[in-house]
Specification:
It contains 8 helices and 7 strands. Helices cover 55% and strands 19% of the residues. It is globular, with a radius of gyration of 16 Å. The strands form 2 sheets. Strands 2-3-1-4-7 form a 5-stranded parallel β-sheet, with helices on both faces. It has a two-stranded antiparallel sheet with strand order 5-6. It is of the alpha/beta class. The two termini are 16 Å apart. A hairpin with a 2-residue loop joins strand 5 and strand 6.
Length: 192
Amino acid sequence: MTKIYLIFGPQGSGKSTQAERIAEKLNLPYFNSGSKLREIAATGSELGNIVKEQMNSGRLIDSEIIDKVFEQYVTENNGASFVADGYPRLIEELDFTLELGKKYDWEILAVDIEICEETTLKRLDGRTTIVNGVEVKREDDTPEIIKKRLEAYHNETSPVVKALKDRGELIEIDGEPTKDEVTKAVFEALKI
């Protein structure tokens, strides 16, 4: 059975770092929805401009857009094992993921990295990303947008996390310690 690792956590939880470390440890491809969407936003295409506007507003990207990006990634990798960061974010996206899971016979392993809002705000101050090979401050990391994104995460993504917990497919990890301590806890919980 193919294992799919879904990594959750609010902004600043270190979910991308932990997802990358899981992917590296298991030698698996890594799907980062935020990076994929930032790549699309940077193209200046019609879709890129829509994605950029939605990201800068603090809203979640429309499901139709991210579902297509995710499905294209899965199809390109023939449904093989991978680590996903930042997807699914909504119950309907989880439903879409579970349908793909039936098609590809996936075993889903979800990890939720939990931190408090104060930690989120502290960690995101000055965060940067690489766009076209250049390090820049993320446009979507202003305090106002961060608060909107946290609200969206708690209102819209928390039900996904709860649904996975109810299915017995969720591991909860305290994200407050250092990156290496969190990694150790994640690896132990996943038995990798």
